[in-house]
Structure formats: C-alpha cells, structure tokens
Amino acid sequence: DSGVTQTPKHLITATGQRVTLRCSPRSGDLSVYWYQQSLDQGLQFLIQYYNGEERAKGNILERFSAQQFPDLHSELNLSSLELGDSALYFCASSVDPRLNTGELFFGEGSRLTVL
Amino acid sequence: EDQVTQSPEALRLQEGESSSLNCSYTVSGLRGLFWYRQDPGKGPEFLFTLYSAGEEKEKERLKATLTKKESFLHITAPKPEDSATYLCAVQGLTDSWGKLQFGAGTQVVVTP
Fold first, then answer.
1. Residue B103, CA distances (Å) to A53, B6, B21, B36 in order
2. Could you read off the pLDDT of B52-106 as tens digits, one per residue?
3. How far apart are CA B20 and CA B23, in angstroms?
4. Is the preceding peptide bond at A8 cis, omega within 30 degrees of 0?
5. Rounded-to-integer distance, Cα A74 and Cα A25, Å
6. Confidence band (pLDDT; 50, 70, 90) for A13?
7. 8 Å CB contact of A43 and B95
8. Cβ neighbours of B89 (radius 10 Å)
9. Do residues A109 and B43 touch, judged by C-beta distance below 8 A?
10. Integer Cα distance of A75 and A95 in angstroms
C-alpha cells in the first residue's frame, strides 16, 4: 500500500460526459502528479501541483483540468469525454520534488471507460 | 523533448535465467534516471534512482547501471515473483519540479 488513495477505482460513462477523479496523497507529501496510462501511449504526464500551486504541465488536453486543495487532496476533471479518453489515470505524490529523488508514490489508479 | 525508449518490449525468462533490460534516453541534461516496477492492475512502484554515468544501484536480484546514453536493469537468477512490467523514466535538468518522462516499459514474465 503506497498510502495514495484514488477514487473511484472504476468509472464507466458516455461520450460527452464529465467526470471527476479524486486523489488523496500520502500523509506529509506536498506534491501531487497526474498521469494517464493507455495501451498505446504508455504512462503520460498530465500535470503536477505542489502545495496548492501548479508547477508543471504536460500534454494535458484543454478539456481536462485539475486542482490541489488546501488539505492537499487533488481532483482531475475530465469533460466532453471522447472514446480516446478511456485509460487508467494515476495519481502520485512525493514529499518535495526539489529533493530530486525521483521517488513518486503511485495510487492504484482510476480506470475510466468511455462508451 | 525528452525521449525514453525501452527494449525489449517483452521478455520471457525461465526461473534462474539472468537477463538485462535496456533503457535508451535523450534528454537535454540529465537530472536523474529512475526505474519503477508495475504489477498488473497496480500503480508503478519505485525501485532506483541513478544520477550520473557509472553509477550502479542494487536491490535483491536487480541491479541498475547508467551510461551517458542508456541504462540497464540486470535481473540475476530471476524468480516468478519478479514478473512485472519494468518502467524507466528520466527527469531533465529543466524539469526541477519532478516531471518524469516514462518509457513504454518491458514486460517480464518469469516461469518456474
């Protein structure tokens, strides 16, 4: 158990809909990362927050948005869903990325299926 | 843009049959190279960090090495419990906030 909690574990929805994925980081970790994993794309970095502020952004679609709240939990919002958005979405956390250990603690992921 | 290429895509080993996985990378200045293990249906689990060419790290039957262009993960006398997908990731010098670029992974299956 990494200590990172993601909900829901599974989500099935229709095209055009909007969903919210939630992540609670490990106790004491200030940074949260969101990654998307699909069969053809591998693990793709979406966005990172540190202590409530956005610090790094990957190839995150404009239809996707995220935030980190004062209690450090984070939410990833996916809207106008398309079939291609079906994937496993991982949240990871770390104490302070500036320590440069590369040690991220990943949750078990939220599997999104868009029909 | 940082790039990570892992080979082979899949590897089937007999228990006890040692082998190596390759991770080739292109990055404008390496801040760190990282190895993770991912079991089916689970999130990746951190294994090693390597910072500079010539560095080596070991953990049980796994040993990671680093050169200026690639990293190897050596699996010595593997056991079935070593079956997993092994992911390599890099962080460039311009990514001070911990953005990791992952490779596609090598799926390892160890049979008894």
1. 27, 6, 12, 10
2. 999 999 999 999 999 999 999 999 999 999 999 999 999 988 887 778 899 999 9
3. 10
4. yes
5. 8
6. very high
7. no
8. 25
9. yes
10. 18
Number of other residues whose CB lies within 10 A of the CB of residue A67: 14
Chain B interface includes A28 (CB < 8 A):
no
- Which is nearest to A101 in space by CA: B29, B3, B35? B35
* B41 contact A CB<8A: yes
Nearest-by-Cβ selection for B99 from A43, A58, A98: A58
Span A59-76, pLDDT tens digits = 899 999 999 999 999 999
H or E segment at A50?
strand A42-50
User: Is residue A35 packed enough to be buried (19+ CB in 10 Å), middle (13-18) or exposed (0-12)?
Assistant: buried
Distances from the Cα of A60 to the Cα of A56, A69, A112, angstroms:
11, 19, 16
